[in-house]
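Course exercise 7: structure representation. Students receive a sequence record and must write out the corresponding structure in token form. The form below is the worked example handed out in class, using protein acetyllysine N-acetyltransferase (241 residues). Read each field label carefully; the graders check that inputs and outputs are placed in the correct fields and that the protein name is recorded exactly as given.

STUDENT ID: A-19
EXERCISE PROTEIN: protein acetyllysine N-acetyltransferase
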Amino acid sequence: MSIVEKIGMKEAAERIKKAQKITFLTGAGVSTPSGIPDYRSLKGIYQGHEQPEYLLSHEAMVQEPEKFYQFVQQLYHPDAQPNVIHKVIAGLEKEKAVWLVTQNIDGLHEKAGSKNRINFHGSLYSCSCRKCGCPVPWTSYVVSDRHEDCGGQIRPNIVLYGEGFQEKVLEDAVSAVEQAETIVIVGTSFQVHPFCDLLAYKQPQAEIIVVNQTPISLFEPYAFVEADGVNVFQQIEEIKE
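STUDENT ANSWER:
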């Protein structure tokens, strides 16, 4: 069982603001306030599908490209804008040593200006042709999954079920966790491997703060604020140095 220290929003905001070497680990709950559905909630994109993981798998992309493409198209929300969580994380990067490792593939952390960012599962807004290997604009992909130059299948550069991770992505994520004095987990159930395994690389003395609507299960003690991340990060924004 996790050893959980429950703290209020104000204290969480103050601890995060005071920390000097922070690594944020973020999930789908960070982007829901921007209008992007999560995956597994009652309003999530998996609802109504019998095998949603299959539809986001390498196997589906190869064996049933039309089904795969139809499912992936609904993941795009190009008009969505960063909310206060994305903006505060990007802003803190200008003040202190901040790294961000995100499960999200929606590009909002990038839009907000986070530079020290590791897109752990890739990005929908980076696409390439499986036949010729050329990069393809995402704007072309949402119109057709066929590359007009060679007829090959276009894919978003995201990690699908059944695919491995690039070594550099794993190394960068581990490094981001290793250097942190404070690790802030935001908007994720923290159950997807290998993302949730990153904590194995934290420094023994590093503090973990979890900002989430529900508790998560960790093998490490953590401070937990049960709240909408928007409210916590608004408080961080309001704290004056």
